Amino acid sequence: MPAEIQPFHDPQTGTFSYLVVDPATRRAAIVDPVLDYDPRSARTGTAGADAIAAYVESRALVVDWILETHAHADHLSAAAVLKARLGGRTGIGEGVCEVQATFRDILDLGPGFPVDGSQFDHLFRDAETLAIGSLAGRVLATPGHTSDSITYVIGNSAFIGDTLFAPGYGTARCDFPGGDTRRLFESVQKLYALPPDTLLYQCHDYPPTGREPHPACTVREQREGNVMLREGTSMHEFVAARQARDAKLAAPVLLIPAIQVNIRAGHLPPPASNGHSYLKIPVNRL
Asked: How many alpha carbons fall within 13 Å on the CB side of residue 263?
């Protein structure tokens, strides 16, 4: 019996989160959940997480996993909120240790901040398997956008994070610390090697005016139509185009707050002596 996939769209960040359900056992996984965050007031909210939790509770599902495709730079993770409400284990790629080490320095988090991924319940290796009830999944390491980017392949579905966007938009950027255009090219080849009818569920869609955001397209559609990296595009061509485009991009609005929360598995920084959490802003470091 195939997995049931329920997308949840956050219009503020253009993010898709997913609930993957095994209909045979009613066990589930949540992929890339979003914590609401207002950068003007630095206030968090749980409307997006509440929608996912309400769906889970309405169907009496049991959450096995809360999965991240990478430590996102464009939204804050609701993994900690959902784990406290629904249970489940948090998981991310083992490359998050490199991300943590990089940003411990950039953000001056101090030697006491662990860079071993221990904030998460499990670190996935390339080719590792996982189970959601009776559903069998496997992990593909797909770095390039970030050093910790991974893809979860479950049946005919693959949850690819930011590696690819809709064919008309292209691929992820590679100019964050740890990004690498050549590694991204190689990662996309892994995705293109999947069966042509595999549905690639992306973390974001930025549609042109008049089109609703789409959560997924097939491997075949990406191979044939991706404007930056279709089948037959050489690594040299892609690297040149991607680097030229990245040079013109501004930093994501939520980069600084998002990374501080997301390398902590969705937890805010520990409270200060007055009981409040604070986010650091590194000046002239990014």
From this structure: 28
